[in-house]
Design goal:
- The complex is a heterotrimer of chains A (239), B (798) and C (155).
- With 239 residues, chain A is α+β, with helices and mostly antiparallel strands.
- Helix content of chain A is 30%, strand content 24%.
- The longest helix of chain A has 17 residues.
- In chain C, strands 2-1-5-3-4 form a five-stranded mixed beta sheet, with helices on both faces.
- In chain C, a hairpin with a 2-residue loop joins strand 1 and strand 2.
- With 155 residues, chain C is α+β, with helices and mostly antiparallel strands.
- The chains are: A alpha+beta (239), B alpha+beta (798), C alpha+beta (155).
């Protein structure tokens, strides 16, 4: 379980990173590596080059701008979890993301861009109506997640920061996983009237109030997920 | 002061806590190459060709070997069945499981070796896969091994007493069929091997985290067509857990050895986790039916078993031992005498199976204990009561079971009552009634197990029909032996040397306590070495740390050696003190004349004479003080003509009570309480025993509730990561309340029996009974393990 | 090949390595620090956990290149000469290890955890330990060891 060879670059600025990515078709940006490095180790990902974003200070940081929480893409999840600025919804959700060691390395932007359909942060982003600011444009969360491990980011485009609006009303994050720290079977984030679900489709989805048609997996058949999702939605709405 | 029985801290800890352990990946050899394997992507495929040219030209590659070369270089591995399956270390002309190694490459680094493996070109012709037990029994499915003519490789019916009559006169016959998917040991340290070959002398030295049985070393030497004395196997001081599985690494040793010979350099292979999950070893998947014949008073008068174990692609030694290891204790703690066992082993396109903590017993007890609970319901007995009515009584030992086991000692009723008391069984039942009234799914389960330790090597031959075993030229098998040496150095300190290949059990701590008592010393005066080296250790084919044999046999050998040393000390003391040996005692590091404590000589002085002035020793005494003793157990005999065998040497007893709650939404099982009472004979160190109970219980719970290897219908492996193969974590693990009864074994020198597998044999039965109890008000009966949330949900939905 | 300079347990090391070299392999095979163990190489088992600039990291999910210029602490840094760290002492006293293979990663995680949570509950300890797999102990003795070390560190 060793990665295939790749070139490695560690640019000090966003512009430099974008230039490196533009020059190399198969280059991949490396954020915290907590999802990418396992894929490298299994040789499921074989980029020709890695552009490590770890030295780009402008991509890190947590601040409040007019009630909106702005988080740099390369901010470690652990820092957001322990930030006084983080909303309770995000803090609760981050408690379900892997384990301390992976949260210390894993980044907020990395999790969003990885777009695992069971991951907690994309569900929160969707529930909160977050805006994802990239090196080229601003995308609403609704249009960011396209499929399993696929986002609207184009080749050479980098996520720069995320704007999380404060929840407009009560918020809650509830999750069912078979073991502590596992990928969720189903997770639900509520921000005011908006309820988003993870684990039920190829992307996180907003609940439209209607019947759910989840996608089953190896450990959780579709109908099983539907029952759990219904119950978790009720729990989140009761919060 | 008696040191046996004290909770002394472990002398093994300090290097491990400070990062100075010596595991196989820490073994230093000069300039080693590193190995990676090319593995079959298909579960079942003819191999038309394997082309290594591209791989050999890859940067840093020094050597490669393809499975197609192996018949020219090696012999197939022997196993204890009649058919020759031609099991080679690499797939030769057919791949028989997804992940089976077909070629190996040695390169300057593991990274470069993995690069080269991607360039191995193998041409496959895929075949239909045989995956499940039912597939393997289906004559329409393809054969894995044409020369065998069937995918059923062992099929034996064993009868003891008159089971037909017992079933004919029964008031009630209860039958349950249980299916249990595969799980395994998954120690955190994977397999590892380092091989170094000297062409001039022909000596092959291998370091491997291999824990025996050492019977596999002759198997290995034979596969390499090498005289045994040219094969030196050294087990590194530390092994990062095994729980049985590291017995099964030996086929890889053949490949790593061949690469070292070919490359002319040391070669190292550290298995990675992906390889471990897909290609090491699993417990067989099994479908087992148990029939119990009972009287209306709840007495079990007949037992029938029909089991099919799926051994995977090959029968790898010591398999089919999963099916046969429990033979002597098949009836568990119950008095039933009339027994019929129909034992079937099949092959399929899955990884070959092998030892896993509890080895074969958890399946037997799951089947019996689940069926007994259903019988209790039918007859209107509490599950505790129906067990009480059937237990072998304390005055019945040694007790010969109908299948040939000789239970050495025990007090089963007392241990059961202790477990019920520890669990607060009465209160638990009251809480359950209350919870049920509130609509909660709470259940209580009991699991009992007679825990065999110190395997008799001969039991496996019951897989052979008696006519084969009795044929002229057949050499019978039996035995359970181990060795230890005790010596007193020139400064009067004692050194105990063993070769048990331990995996974290604390053997050195425990043996020091035994020897301190024997020689009247403090454990601090007893240095210990536990290191297996096939060239310096004294060993026999049954040596190793498996079948929970340390405290019964290696510690026993050490005690036996210490007895000889004690005699030597007293004889020298007799000369120095001018007193008769019988008038002397060895206390607090001194030889004293009994009743005259002022007439004494220190052990240091005795040792000084033995080493520095042997001229002053009694006549006929050699210099130094030491004894090397092999302990062989006389109870270990080959099977009889009527298939009875004392398959183990000592038999402990475990009784457990588990309470669970099933969440009617997620169908997850939460352990509410767990009580474990056991009798492992004399306890050398209670904290070490407790550690074995905790670990074995959690392993059993994992296998019963969540851990599961899965394949699709084409035999593609679906659980290749630790995210998919789900071990229980601290967040799910229960607290376990433990209690002990000690009925010393009359058959072991220390009175101790094994305890390392104990609760892994009861936990699945107890938790399955608890879940069944929880679901009974819904009219649901779980029969398919592990009892994952999705599986319970499906049961509820059906 | 790239240059990597790291400070490990207070000692600076410089090596020229392949970009793909994992930090776990760098520590073990370039620096001969064998205390850090490798159990899964995909971040689940936790055996390889080290401190990277004071925070726990899976060394199998970190490239040596990413550690360039940073400070690493491994299990070898915990004891002060012959004097055990209170966590090590507690693991010894409470039988918190058997084979010892998973132990280095658990000690590192626990050291950071107790800095953050000097007086944890058992449930908090268990939730934190869920990031580590141990197949020997059933976890209860590890939980007890960490709770005992927390008490010792508070004194």
């Amino acid at each position: 379980m060793k990665p295939a060879p790749f070139e490695y670059f560690r640019p000090g600025s966003l512009d430099e990173a974008l230039a490196l990515l533009a020059e190399r078709e198969d280059a991949k940006p490396l954020a915290g590596g907590q999802s990418l490095v396992p894929m490298l180790n299994f040789r499921l990902a074989r980029p020709s080059a890695l552009v490590d974003l770890g030295a780009i200070e402008e991509l890190r940081g947590i601040r409040i701008e007019g009630g909106t929480l702005v988080v740099g893409a390369m901010t470690p999840q652990w820092e957001l979890e322990h930030s006084p600025h983080a909303f309770p919804l995000l803090r609760e959700a981050l408690g379900f993301v892997g384990h301390t060691a992976t949260r210390c390395r894993g980044t907020v932007g990395g999790s969003l861009v990885h777009a695992d359909p069971t991951a907690e942060l994309p569900v929160c982003a969707l529930a909160l109506g977050a805006e994802l600011v990239t090196s080229r444009r601003t995308l609403p969360a609704e249009r960011f997640f396209l499929s399993v491990f696929t986002t609207a980011l184009e080749p050479g485009e980098l996520l720069v920061e995320v704007h999380f609006p404060a929840p407009p009303g009560p918020s809650a994050f509830v999750e069912h996983a078979h073991r502590h720290g596992d990928f969720a079977v189903v997770c639900v984030a509520r921000a005011g009237d908006r309820i988003a679900l993870g684990g039920v489709a190829a992307t996180p989805v907003l609940w439209d109030g209607g019947e759910l048609e989840p996608v089953g997996d190896l450990f959780a058949p579709a109908d099983y997920k539907r029952e759990i999702a219904r119950a978790l939605i009720e729990r989140a709405r009761a919060a | 002061m008696t040191w046996v029985g004290q909770p002394l801290p472990r002398r093994e800890d300090l290097p491990l806590l400070t990062g100075r352990g010596q595991f196989v990946d820490d073994v230093q050899v000069a300039n080693p190459l590193h190995v990676a394997f090319a593995r079959s992507p298909w579960a079942h495929a003819e191999i038309r060709s394997v082309d290594l040219a591209g791989a050999l030209a890859s940067p840093g590659v020094a050597a490669g070997i393809a499975g197609t070369e192996l018949p020219g270089l090696t012999e197939p591995f022997a196993a204890g069945i009649t058919h020759r399956l031609a099991y080679y270390a690499l797939a030769v002309d057919r791949a028989r499981y997804a992940g089976e190694p077909v070629a190996a490459i040695a390169a300057e680094s593991r990274y470069l070796a993995e690069d080269a493996v991607e360039l191995v070109l193998a041409d496959y012709e895929p075949l239909e896969a045989v995956v499940t037990v039912e597939d393997a029994l289906d004559p329409a499915k393809p054969l894995l091994h044409e020369q065998v003519g069937s995918n059923v490789v062992v099929d034996r019916t064993l009868r003891y007493g008159d089971p037909d009559a017992a079933f004919a006169r029964a008031d009630l016959v209860v039958e349950e069929t249980l299916r249990w998917e595969r799980y395994s040991s998954t120690p955190i340290e994977t397999y590892g091997i380092v091989a170094d070959y000297e062409p001039a002398s022909g000596l092959l030295t291998m370091w491997a985290n291999f824990m025996g049985p050492m019977t596999l070393l002759p198997v290995l030497a034979r596969s390499l067509r090498m005289p045994e004395e040219k094969l030196r196997v050294i087990v590194p001081k530390d092994i990062g857990g095994s729980f049985g599985i590291k017995s099964s690494l030996f086929p890889y040793m053949t490949v790593v050895a061949l690469l070292a010979m070919r490359a002319g350099r040391p070669v190292k292979w550290i298995e990675d986790r992906a390889e471990h999950l897909i290609g090491s070893s699993h417990q067989p998947d099994r479908v087992g039916t148990r029939e119990l014949a009972l009287t209306r008073d709840g007495e079990i008068i007949g037992l029938r078993a029909h089991v099919v174990d799926n051994l995977g692609a090959y029968v790898r030694a010591p398999e089919p031992a999963t099916t046969y290891r429990p033979l002597g204790n098949y009836v568990g703690p119950y008095r039933v005498r009339d027994v019929e066992l129909h034992l079937v082993d099949v092959v399929s396109n899955k990884v070959p199976t092998g030892p896993n903590r509890g080895y074969g017993c958890q399946q037997v007890y799951l089947e019996t204990e689940r069926t007994l609970d259903e019988a209790a319901v039918e007859l209107g007995f509490d599950p505790a009561e129906i067990r009480r009515r059937n237990l072998i009584q304390a005055d019945a030992f040694p007790y010969e079971t109908p299948t040939g086991g000789v239970y050495d000692s025990g007090d089963y009723p007392r241990v059961l009552e202790l477990a019920l008391e520890t669990a607060g069984y009465g209160e638990l039942r009251a809480l359950q009634a209350q919870a049920r009234a509130e609509g909660c799914l709470v259940g209580i389960g009991i699991g009992l197990a007679v825990d065999p330790s110190i395997s008799n090597m001969g039991y496996i031959t019951v897989a052979l029909p008696p006519e084969v075993r009795q044929a002229p030229g057949y050499n019978p098998k039996s035995g359970a032996a181990d060795w230890a040496q005790v010596r007193v150095n020139a400064s009067g300190k004692v050194v105990v040397t063993m070769g048990t290949a331990p995996q974290g059990q604390g053997h050195e701590t425990a043996v020091a306590q035994v020897i301190a008592d024997e020689l009247g010393l403090s454990p601090d005066d007893v240095a210990t070495v536990d290191a297996f080296d096939s060239h310096t250790s004294v060993w026999s084919v049954s040596s190793g740390s498996y079948s929970s044999r340390f405290s019964g046999i290696a510690a026993g050998a050490a005690r036996k050696a210490a007895g000889v040393v004690r005699r030597q000390i007293l004889e020298i003391g007799s000369t120095l003190l001018e007193a008769a040996v019988d008038d002397l005692e060895l206390v607090d590091g001194e030889v004293r004349v009994k009743g005259s404590p002022d007439r004494s000589v220190s052990l240091r002085r005795v040792a000084g004479v033995a080493h520095w002035d042997p001229h002053g020793l009694p006549e006929g005494t050699s210099a130094g003080i030491q004894a090397s003793e092999v302990l062989h157990v006389p109870t270990s005999a080959p099977p009889t003509h009527d298939d009875r065998v004392n398959s183990s040497h000592a038999y402990g007893f475990v009784a457990e009570v588990v309470a669970v709650e099933v969440d009617p939404l997620t169908w997850g099982v939460t352990i509410l309480s767990y009580a474990s009472a056991n009798d492992a004979g004399t306890i050398i160190n209670p904290k070490l025993v407790e550690g074995q109970t905790y670990g074995s219980a959690l392993h059993g719970l994992g296998g019963a509730l969540l851990e599961e290897f899965r394949w699709d219908e084409d035999g593609q492996f679906l659980t290749g990561t630790f995210a998919d193969y789900r071990c229980l974590t601290a967040a799910e693990a229960p607290r376990i309340a433990t209690a002990h009864v000690e009925t010393p074994s009359p058959f072991t020198p220390v009175g101790a029996k094994g305890c390392g597998e104990s609760s892994s044999e009861t936990a699945p039965a107890a938790v399955a009974n608890a879940v069944a109890d929880a679901l009974r008000p819904l009219g649901l009966k779980p029969t398919h393990l592990p009892l994952t949330p999705a599986r319970l949900w499906e049961l509820a939905r059906a | 090949m790239i240059d990597v300079a790291v400070t490990v347990n207070g000692t600076r090391h410089e090596r020229r390595v392949e970009p793909r070299l994992l930090l776990s392999d760098f520590l073990r095979h370039e620096l001969s620090l064998y205390g850090t163990h490798v159990g899964c190489e995909h971040g689940v088992c936790g055996a390889c956990t080290v401190l990277l600039d004071g925070r726990p990291a899976r060394s199998c999910l970190t490239l040596a290149a990413q550690a360039d210029g940073r400070a690493i602490h491994t299990v070898e840094s915990l004891a002060d000469g012959g004097r055990l760290h209170p966590l090590q002492q507690a693991f010894h006293e409470h039988f918190g290890l058997q084979c010892g293979f998973c132990t280095p990663g658990i000690l590192i995680t626990a050291a950071f955890f107790l800095e953050q949570h000097p007086d944890p509950t058992e449930a908090e300890v268990r939730a934190e330990l869920a990031g580590h797999l141990c197949r020997c102990t059933g976890y209860a003795p590890i939980v007890d060891s960490i709770l005992a070390a927390a008490a010792a560190l508070r004194r």
